[in-house]
Amino acid sequence: MSERIALYAGSFDPPTLGHLDLIQRASKIFDQVIVGVACNEAKAALFDPVERVEMVEKMTEKIANVRVSQFYGLTVEYARTQNAMALIRGLRVISDFEFELSMAINNQKLNPAVDTVCLMPSEPYLFLSSRQVKEIAHFGGSVSHYVTPEVESRLFQKLALRADDTDTKKNASP
Predict the structure, then answer these.
(1) With 0-12 CB in 10 A as exposed, 13-18 as middle and 19+ as buried, what is 119?
(2) Residues belonging to the active site
């Protein structure tokens, strides 16, 4: 019997405890879970792909059947190159369903051999998103219950660097 491989793809900018929750749960269902950090130039990411891979690797280092990589292009095509049989997607609230259904249908048209498996997050993460974490951190709020300590540290360092860079540009002479 062949190995059951799943791909959990996303931007992970930054990776949250909600992402970790889904990774841990998927790792119990599949023989191998590949966490694919998507590189999408259309999105203005706070962290570059290498930083995001490092953070996800650190948060999943104790899960033996998880591998982290970065990729460019269509998720379903990357899944094919990795011999993945399934794409893992998180469904937090009803508003996610329409988007995820549309994506699942398109992915199935592109590669009928890959199924989409939707997992509901555990209750504490139902309304958690990376975007919200960045916004809370940007305004100085605590994000310790949303991300690992390492991610929190990197997040505040990155935001401080951006603030310093913005201040330098504002004070520069013409």
Answers:
(1) middle
(2) 19, 43, 92, 130
